[in-house]
Amino acid sequence: MLQTPTLSAYHPTTAEIDLAAFNENITKLKKLVKKSMLLAVIKTNAYGHGTVRIGEEAVKAGAESLGVTTVEEGALLRENGIDVPIHILSSITPEQASDVVRYELTASVFSIRLAKAISEVAVKQRKTIPVHLKLDTGLHRFGLEPHEVLSFCEVCYELPGLWWEGVYTHFSSVDEGDWETTERQFNLFIDTVTMLDEQGFNFAIRHVGGSTIAIERPDMHLDMVRPGVALFGYQPAARQRDIISLKPVMALKSNLIYVRELPPNTPVGYGGSYVTRTTKKIAVVPIGHGDGYSRALSNKGKMLIGGKRVKIIGTISLDQTLVDVTDVPDVTEGEEVILLGEQGGDEITAEDVADWMGSIVDEVVSGFTERIRRVYV
Ligand SMILES: *Cc1c(COP(=O)(O)O)cnc(C)c1O
């Protein structure tokens, strides 16, 4: 067995997870989706917030089901006592069928091989496993194309041990607000499901969208919506801020571990990508790209120290980042650093960090590695 040491003090860089904010966000989203069910998408370590604690909190806050992308995440939730439906929103291999059945996870199915594999194990274990048919309406990632579904259902719908509880698709262009494309995909989905229904292939739960659909398109909520990033306090698009206000759940904090003064013309960090022009006070923050703090933030990102917004200078290394604290009065080692969150009336959000690194919020928050301790408040 792997042993976990108990220490008297921990590495100073921590992610504070505000469970009250999470609860508030889910409550607001539930109000928006009204009668449709809410599947809380908590894939990728709950977008970096911690699978088990967030899973428990989501159920407490009224999520009817949870969504993950790996069997490992689903099994972890089951082993920790979560008993609501858990959807695997990604594709899995036929070899994983026995774990899907054992943990009673709801698989997304669009291959005959996988349907047969789950059916076989389910029959052996005398269980009926709920599955959802995945349709591809234009994302072209995975799923059956509309012209393939009828022959698929003819082979798979009656397989023993399977309960075709739902059918779904995932849109390609909602966050960009491309409603023309989205409506085409939605209509294709509805037409396909209607055709299947007329052929005797019925699916009780139809669902098509995540956060953006939950926030902007009540006409597309159908039986269930699947918000992810919004649960954690971020609207996928700025235009949605007028419809719903959400609160960021994660704050990222650290403490300065070293402060020093450097004379003019001193190269700083790997490759000397930053050179001081004047005398500068430089501080070390114990976080790096090894923690998931992107190297793309080198010479670009900012942090809050002593109520001031300070610049990252030089190239971020695996474990350390350097900041220019010349303008922070009385700055000392041990001083608090805010990498995400509020300080002195200023705030750095995951949206800011995403802009600086040329990415999206999802990558910022879900990228933080296990080494950053999650503290629940
Ligand atoms: C990730 C994901 C979601 C959640 O998307 P958000 O934009 O984060 O709300 C919903 N459905 C599927 C199939 C997904 O993969």
Textual characterization of the structure:
- The modification N6-(pyridoxal phosphate)lysine is found at residue 43.
- Pathway: Amino-acid biosynthesis; D-alanine biosynthesis; D-alanine from L-alanine: step 1/1.
- One of its GO terms (molecular function) is alanine racemase activity.
- Substrate binds at residue 141.
- Helices cover 29% and strands 23% of the residues.
- The two termini are 30 Å apart.
- With 377 residues, it is an alpha/beta fold.
- Strands 1, 10, 11, 14, 15, 16, 17, 18, 19 and 20 form a ten-stranded mixed β-sheet that branches.
- The protein contains eleven helices and 20 strands.
- It has two domains: 19-237, Alanine racemase (TIM Barrel, Alpha-Beta Barrel); 250-376, Lyase, Ornithine Decarboxylase, Chain A, domain 1.
- A hairpin with a 7-residue loop joins strand 16 and strand 17 (321-324).
- Helix 7 (146-156) packs parallel to helix 8 (179-198).
- Pyridoxal-5'-phosphate is lined by residues 41, 43, 89, 170, 210-211, 226-230, 236.
- Pyridoxal-5'-phosphate (PLP) binds at residues 41, 43, 89, 170, 210-211, 226-230, 236.
Whole-number average pLDDT? Answer: 97
Give the class from helix and strand content and strand pairing. alpha/beta
Helix content bin:
25-40%
CATH architecture assignment name of the largest domain: Alpha-Beta Barrel
Distance between the termini: 30 Å
- The Cα radius of gyration reads 24 Å
Number of strand elements: 20
Q: What percent of residues are in strands?
A: 15-25%
Shape: elongated
Just give the CATH class of the largest domain: Alpha Beta
Ranges where pLDDT stays below 50 over 5 or more residues in a row are: none
Tally of structural domains: 2
